[in-house]
Amino acid sequence: MSDSNITKVSEGLRKPEGWTPPSRPDPQGCEMCRAPVEAEFIEPVFWNGKPSFGTGRWMFAPICPRCQKSKDDEAKEEQEEKQAQERSRKIQELISQAGFKKIHEVMTLDNFAPLFCAETFFEIQKAWDAGKNIFITGPTGVGKTHLSVGLLKNFISSTAQRGLIRNVAEFMLDIRQAIKTHKDADLLNEVSSADALVLDDLGVERPTPTALETLYLLIDRWHNDCKGRLIITTNYDLREISGRLHDRIASRITGMSELFRLDGQDRRMLLRLRPGNADKEA
Ligand SMILES: Nc1ncnc2c1ncn2[C@@H]1O[C@H](COP(=O)(O)OP(=O)(O)OP(=O)(O)O)[C@@H](O)[C@H]1O
Ligand SMILES: [Mg+2]
Ligand SMILES: [Zn+2]
């Protein structure tokens, strides 16, 4: 466009001198509360001294600012409630897909009484909250599984991320089955892609060499990806794990985890020997 054309256009758009807007109309009633709503003037676009079609008008909002605000607040609340419902539905789904068993239902952090292991319990929680991997060894019945289940449940419900628990002996059987149907890679991917994983009772089983290889690959993948939030529970120490499984497995676990020992009395025995049960035991 040439300079003279630009000048013409800008002159055409100029507001004529002495132009005044049409007088303000009376307020209209709010459609919701009937309170008066003042008209708002829409600035005109001038063309050759006149407002161009459809501009330079007084307009009314259908509802007053107060009603508009409460309508917006209501919509926001509704949206937030929908999001909360969606999140809680997702958490329920994640919990149901995590692999918890009936016996795990009652195991929560709230009902974990760290009677014999207060300090270790606190340290484990701290490491878990920091996203570390955790290796828990200890004798039978001291709460290794209970604590891990509680941590995993908390993880899922506070992050809405995918958590899994696998009993290692059962997992070995699954692997053997998957190897037969050439689905072992899928199984490995499914488990190693979890955001948090509990491998419960490592070392009880004596796996076949191929199942052991898959377990090694899982630990190795977790190790190589520098992932956190793996809990391993076991009755064995790492030297024994090395002998029962493989030193490469024990080495990776040592390298990537915080190591803990839960001690205390066998809670299963204690539960049986409560005063109320003592007579029956006798
Ligand atoms: N500190 C605790 N507070 C409340 N209940 C506990 C506690 N520790 C263990 N229990 C209960 O005792 C029983 C045994 O606990 P759990 O299964 O966690 O033991 P474990 O250490 O995993 O044993 P194992 O080595 O045999 O697998 C469960 O019913 C569990 O809920
Ligand atoms: Mg256990
Ligand atoms: Zn109103």
Tell me about this structure.
The chain is of the alpha/beta class. It has two domains: 3-63, no CATH class; 98-272, P-loop containing nucleotide triphosphate hydrolases (Rossmann fold, 3-Layer(aba) Sandwich), CATH 3.40.50. The protein is 49% helix and 15% strand. Strand 4 and strand 5 (50-51) form a beta hairpin. The radius of gyration is 34 Å and the shape is elongated. The model is unreliable at 278-282 (pLDDT under 50). The structure holds adenosine-5'-triphosphate, magnesium ion and zinc ion. The site of zinc ion (ZN) has 8 residues, from helix 2.
CATH architecture descriptor name of the largest domain: 3-Layer(aba) Sandwich
Computed structural class: alpha/beta
Shape: elongated
Oligomer: single chain
- Ligands bound, unique: adenosine-5'-triphosphate, magnesium ion, zinc ion
Order of helices and strands: HEEEEEEHHEHEHHEHEHHEHH
Characteristic terms for this protein:
single chain; 282 residues; alpha/beta; Rossmann fold; 2 domains; five-stranded parallel beta sheet; two-stranded antiparallel ribbon; 11 helices; 11 strands; 15% strand; disordered C terminus; binds adenosine-5'-triphosphate; binds magnesium ion; binds zinc ion
